Amino acid sequence: MADANNDFKKRVRNFTFKALKATVNGVLFYGIYFVLWMYLAPISQMVPGLQQMVETFVMVYILLIILGELTSKTVFQYFFNMAKAMFVIGYLIFSFKSGIFGLTFQNIRLMIDFRLFLVIAMLLSLLGLAKSVFQAINYMNERAECTSI
Amino acid sequence: MRIPIRMIDIATVFFWTFLIVFFVSAVYSVKDVHFDFGEPQMDVTSDNKVIFSQPVSITNKGFYNIGSFNISTEVSDKEGFTITRGSTFTPVINKNDVVTITHNMTIDVNDLLQRDKNYLFNDTELKIYEAVSMRIADVIPVQGSTNFSMPWGAPLYNFTLGKVEYIAHNLTHFKVVVPISFENRAFFDLVGKIQIQMYNSIDIVVGEGQTNIEAHHNSPYNGHLELYVSMGGMTESGHFEVYFLTSLFNYGPLVIPYG
Questions:
Q1: What is the pLDDT of residues A19-42, one digit of tens each?
Q2: Residue ranges of chain B with pLDDT lower than 70?
Q3: Chain A contact for B3 (CB, 8 A cutoff)
């Protein structure tokens, strides 16, 4: 009875800790976004829908961060990390399309070539995806070792 | 396996941080780049071509250098025929630096008239495509372009020969006075000569003469030309052949009937 009680308390404590960590990470990520947005704000006036696009990204990414933290120390954490990396790749492909970004402001047509940035960001996301796969394999390995011992 | 994972983790965080900070600061620093387009100037070269010069001042107060700065201009007519194009390239504009460049464009008026003589006598519109390109922080290519039209004023707008006056000069010749009028609507002054050959009804030259002209831009010209014509060859009708010899172009003959 006492063991069950202790186990429940431990689980609650663990969950609270995870929730706290998830909140801190989420708030930290939002803080970084908030600071960076101050620098990008002048451009958002010229690019219609930029703020909405970035906010959607931040929302989904924070959600995945929170889910990843809440499921930490389980294999699902790595699944969410993989989802995070794949989401970034998908988002970059969806929002940047060919990597050449064009907009028309009054009579002036502006064209910005983000292809180099896009390639580097995709490679880093793929690295993140590979890391999550390795982590998942490593986690399953360690669990298998513990079980066999 | 933990060490390689940790290494990948550290590398990923480092490169993501570097990429985001670099990207945001590069985009942010664009707002500290200012362009100042000065008053365009016009000059005529020794080989009779018109040069447009536009001073452009670039102030780079951003965080990074600007590379491969290029201004290009293309002037074409209504049908899309390219009249002239000019390009000015600056390899690097350093941060905290002010660079003034002169963007030049040359128009050969003779070439222009080869294509269409209407440029001499009728006003029209020229299409201009202007593009400014650069590499922000030497790695992010940016290009801004615009299209607009510019009026072309004809240098010999409404060119007419007035009512010809015949005055007896001696027993064998008439002095023929031909009034000339036009309006120089071009952006340049017109300095040169007008030559006129007078033909009778059977296409024989009966007299010729020339006069100097000096018509400032956006001003009318009224003058006359005198030529001496043999009484024997004169007919009631015929035609004039008019030649224009100016510092910027030569054109002729312009055939104008009389009588």
A1: 899 999 999 999 988 888 887 777
A2: none
A3: no
Beta strands, E only, B33-110: 33-37, 41-44, 50-60, 66-76, 82-93, 97-107
pLDDT band at residue A2 under the 50/70/90 scheme: low
| Structural domains in chain B plus CATH codes | 34-152 (2.60.40.10), 157-258 (2.60.40.10)
B148 CB within 8 Å of a chain A CB: yes
How far, in Å, CA of B27 to CA of B46, rounded?
45
The pLDDT score that the predictor gives to residue B184 is: 92
A112 to chain B: nearest residue by CA? B142
- A114/B31 Cβ within 8 A: no
Say yes or no to pLDDT of A18 above 80.
Answer: yes
| Long-range residue pairs from A136-144, CB within 8 A, at least 24 positions apart, any chain | A136/A75, A136/A78, A136/A79, A136/A82, A137/B1, A138/B1, A138/B2, A138/B5, A139/A75, A139/A78, A140/A75, A141/B1
Residue A14, phi then psi, degrees to nearest 5: -60, -45
* pLDDT 10s digits, A111-140: 888 899 899 999 999 999 998 898 899 888
Complex ipTM value: 0.79
Measure CA B88 to chain center: 16
Residue B113 C-alpha from the chain's centroid? 12
Q: Dihedral of CA A86/A88/A94/A96: which sign?
A: negative
Minimal Cα–Cα distance from A2 to chain B, Å? 37
Chain B interface test: which of A119, A127, A139 (most B C-beta within 10 Å): A127
The Cβ of residue A107 has, within 10 Å, a number of other Cβ atoms equal to 9
How many angstroms separate the CA of residue B91 from the nearest CA in chain A? Answer: 18
Chain A CB within 8 Å of residue B255 CB: no
Average pLDDT for residues A52-77, to the nearest whole number?
89
pTM over 0.90: no
In chain A, positions 41-100, which contact chain B (CB-CB < 8 Å)?
42-43
Please report the pLDDT score of residue B249 as a whole number.
84
| Amino acid at residue number B246 | T
Residue A121: enclosing H or E segment and its boundaries? Answer: helix A115-148
